[in-house]
Design a protein that fits this description.
Blueprint (H helix, E strand, L loop, with lengths): L5 E5 L4 H12 L3 E6 L12 E4 L5 H12 L12 E4 L15 H29 L2 E6 L3 H4 L5 H21 L4 E8 L5 H14 L3 H10 L9 H11 L11 E4 L13
Parallel strand pairs: 1-2, 1-4, 2-3, 4-5, 5-6, 6-7
Helix pairs in contact: 1-8, 2-3, 3-5, 6-7
Bound molecules: nicotinamide-adenine-dinucleotide (NAD).
The site of nicotinamide-adenine-dinucleotide has 28 residues, from α1 and α6.
Length: about 260
């Protein structure tokens, strides 16, 4: 019998990260979730959990001590898969209306957290002879996203981090790939759509319809669609998939929304 994969998921208490946690558990993995809260508006995932602000370096060091500790001390005893998934939407608005503090927070949660988790995961994976890192970017990290400049910039940074780390650690058997979800059905996109509707004077249903129209398949995706790709990319079936930026989005054609029609 193969040993269960040991998986750490940041931002795994809700949304896509939560779907990833369930999918890895269903696949026989041992999962540790790191998040600010155990569960938002639902049951806890039902795996190891650390409450942590992933943008804080000291807290992240403590998290990795916990995760890498031997089984008998409650840890995973090593790490095979890191899903650096956490991310916030950041502010919505024209750049001249955005505050530096909102820019800094978006960068800290979305980019610094990935840096902090990779710098601790990679030595552990090297020691184990390999591993798989999945960074969650966004289609906004490929096309740009009007009125969401801090978010888009943070997601381009994730693509740069992933491409670079793939080159840096591939020779150690560590694969690094970047996932780009399209618009996911759920609370997060509802808030984004409401913010856009408020600012642009459109109805929320018109904003949502405009998002759907930008996708070849005319749809939002679900967390489980991203999770299924994560499980595949972390599996031996994807053993030579490295340094890739992979969208799960129904075929996004553009992210140009109806701000100035
Ligand atoms: P979500 O808001 O549903 O869940 C994010 C989780 O991260 C929450 O459980 C929250 O508590 C946690 N979190 C936030 N800040 C934290 C912090 N400082 N420390 C620890 N935990 C923190 O988000 P989601 O929609 O599942 O998004 C997950 C990832 O996918 C993000 O990187 C996001 O940018 C990306 N993404 C989402 C969508 C979408 O439509 N939802 C689209 C493309 C990309």
């Amino acid at each position: 019998m193969t040993k269960p994969q040991r998986v750490l998921i940041t931002g795994g208490a809700a949304g896509i990260g939560r779907a990833m946690a369930h999918a890895f558990i269903d696949n026989g993995a041992r999962v540790h979730v790191a998040d600010l809260e155990v569960a938002r508006g639902g049951e806890p995932v039902g795996c190891d959990f650390t409450g942590v602000d992933v943008s804080d370096p000291e807290s992240m060091d403590t998290l990795f001590e916990t995760v890498l500790a031997p089984n008998e001390s409650g840890g995973l005893g090593g790490l095979d898969v890191l899903c650096a998934n956490v991310g916030i939407a950041g502010p919505t608005g024209a750049i001249e209306d955005l505050e530096p503090a909102d820019w800094d927070l978006t960068m800290a949660v979305n980019v610094r957290s990935a840096f902090l988790s990779c710098r601790r995961a990679i030595p552990a994976m090297r020691a184990a002879g390999g591993g798989s890192i999945l960074l969650t970017s966004s289609t906004a990290g490929i096309t740009g996203f009007p009125m969401r400049s801090p978010y888009a910039a943070s997601k381009y940074a994730i693509v740069g981090l992933g491409d670079t780390l793939a080159m840096e650690v591939g020779e150690f058997g560590i694969r690094v790939n970047v996932l780009c979800p399209g618009s996911v059905d759920g609370e997060r996109m509802r808030k984004v759509i409401d913010a856009e509707a408020n600012l642009s004077g459109q109805s929320a249903s018109d904003v949502r319809a405009a998002y759907e129209k930008q996708v070849s398949m005319r749809t939002f995706v679900e967390g489980r669609d991203i999770a299924a790709m994560a499980v595949f990319l972390a599996s031996p079936a994807a053993r030579f998939v490295n340094g890739q930026v992979i969208s799960v989005d129904g075929g996004l054609e553009t992210l140009r929304t109806n701000w100035r029609t």
